[in-house]
Specification:
Blueprint (H helix, E strand, L loop, with lengths): L6 E8 L3 H12 L4 E5 L12 E2 L1 H8 L4 H7 L1 E3 L1 E6 L2 E7 L10 E3 L2 H14 L5 E2 L1 E9 L2 E8 L5 E11 L6 H5 L4 E15 L1 E2 L7 E6 L5 E5 L5 E7 L11 H10 L5 E2 L5 E12 L3 E2 L2 E3 L5 E2 L7 H20 L5 H27 L4 H15 L2 H12 L8
Parallel strand pairs: 1-2, 1-11, 2-8, 5-14, 11-20
Antiparallel strand pairs: 3-7, 4-7, 5-6, 9-10, 10-11, 12-16, 12-18, 13-17, 14-15, 15-16, 18-21, 19-20
Helix pairs in contact: 1-4, 1-7, 7-8
Bound molecules: flavin-adenine dinucleotide (FAD).
Flavin-adenine dinucleotide binds next to helix 1, strand 2, strand 9, strand 18 and helix 7.
């Protein structure tokens, strides 16, 4: 005897990270019925992505969230490029063609809490504790099956479309048989939220530091602490959670003129690869966010790109549901191109930052101030980092 289904909706979203939440909000705004499930018992509490670029602020502002974001984020008006203590160039964001010409320092858990609040206003809650295991298609409907993590009881959802927003180890992607092409980075990455003194830059500036040892990005969080993101050579005995003395050695070895003023409130060391799914759709099953692509955190693009995917995807699903047979192919084409562009952008930043030869380093340090000082070039860099050129709104 077949079990009755637990939900039957237009769109079933697997994963309630930032990508899944934005897709759910936009789909509800477009009038579709939506279910969003997540295996985790509660929203993630780690700050993870801490930089929200202008394109993302614009998308979320369109969902009525501007005042909450602006009141809870730290405005960042410029990015300084530096070699050790020596500033090379200052990229201002103020001339970006958007009502929000800046970036925001805002921890991912705060962003997610704001999105969950908006979802609740629209009458939907995330169904938690559902671990999805299989996704199959039959006569124009998708069948999504999993288990309740609390009691291991089966759970079944039926939907016209399934959105895989279930992160880099996506079950939906695997079930759809979509390869995740890519390769590991040679370096590890560390992240830390920590007090620094003296301030490494103005409060409203982020700093990208170049050094033969690795790229170091530092930006101020609304709490007054700083987020450090750094690539570091892989060492088997390096600590999993870098402490104060590790961070001080890192800052000193890279000539960054500051040091810690306490233990980090959160820190992590991780290995990462860059991947882009070979397709972002298999029939009515579509991927967005980390399920579709991952890359180095150096340019702070992961969450931002996922949110842009989710917004574009929701609009394309709404069009497909009203009969536009080209809509999901357009999504696949547009967002795969955006993901490839982000991988190229982060690779370029990393390569420029990591130059090891003395001569090349001197050349780089001489060329950057000149080139970045040419107004159209400076504006081009700001636009590439802001995500505006890849935004579904532009
Ligand atoms: C330590 C760390 C630091 C980072 N730092 C940055 C940064 O500085 N800047 C930046 O832009 N990005 C950063 N990122 C990346 C950023 O966090 C991700 O790009 C972003 O979270 C992607 O959002 P998502 O919604 O696509 O996926 P996720 O946030 O990964 O959400 C996926 C969700 O799917 C759920 N799920 C998974 N499998 C299943 C299943 N089978 N059934 C049901 N639910 C499932 C998970 O529980 C999870 O809630 C960082 C990531 C990490 C891990």
């Amino acid at each position: 005897m077949t079990r009755s289904v637990d939900v039957d909706v237009d769109v079933l979203i697997v994963g309630a990270g930032p990508s899944g939440l934005v897709a759910a909000i936009r789909l509800l705004e477009r009038g579709l019925t939506v279910e969003i499930v997540d295996a985790a018992p509660h929203q993630a509490e780690e700050s993870r992505a801490a930089l929200m670029h202008a394109a993302t602020v614009e998308i979320l502002a369109g969902m009525g969230l501007a005042s909450q974001l602006l009141s809870r984020g730290q405005r960042i008006d410029a990015i300084t490029l530096a070699d050790g203590a020596r500033p090379l160039a200052r990229i201002t964001l103020g001339e970006l063609d958007t009502p929000y010409p800046f970036a925001l320092g805002i921890p991912q858990d705060v962003t997610e809490a704001i999105l969950v609040g908006r979802l609740a206003e629209l009458g939907l809650r995330v169904t938690r504790g559902i671990h999805i295991e299989t996704v199959t298609q039959d006569t124009g409907r998708c069948r999504v099956e999993g288990r309740r993590t609390a009691d291991d009881e089966p759970w079944t959802g039926v939907a016209r479309y399934v959105v895989g927003a279930d992160g880099k180890n996506s079950t939906v992607r695997e079930q759809a048989g979509i390869p995740y092409d890519g390769a590991p980075y040679e370096d590890d990455f560390i992240l830390a939220d920590v007090e620094l003194a003296p301030p490494p830059s103005r409060d409203t500036e982020a700093r990208i530091g170049f050094s033969p040892e690795g790229v170091t990005v530092i930006g101020r969080l609304p709490s007054g602490r700083y987020r450090i993101v750094a690539s570091v050579p892989r060492e088997p005995e390096a600590p999993r959670h870098p402490d104060r003395s590790y961070l001080d050695r890192l800052l000193a070895s890279r000539g960054i003129p500051t040091s810690t003023a306490g233990e980090p409130v959160w820190s992590s060391r991780f290995r990462i690869s860059h991947h882009v799914a070979r397709r972002f759709r298999a029939g009515p099953i579509v991927l967005c966010g980390d399920a579709a692509h991952v890359h180095s955190p150096a340019a702070g693009q992961g969450m931002n790109t996922g949110i842009a995917d989710a917004y574009e995807l929701a609009d394309r699903i709404a069009s497909a549901a009203s009969g536009d047979v080209t809509a999901l192919d357009a999504y696949d084409r547009i967002r795969r191109r955006a993901a490839a562009e982000v991988v190229r952008l982060t690779d370029r930043i990393t390569r420029v930052a990591l130059v090891r030869s003395r001569t090349l380093r001197a050349t780089r340090d001489a060329v950057i101030p000149v080139v970045a000082g040419i107004p159209p070039v400076g504006r081009g860099i700001a636009r590439a980092v802001s995500g505006l050129g890849r935004s579904p709104l532009h």
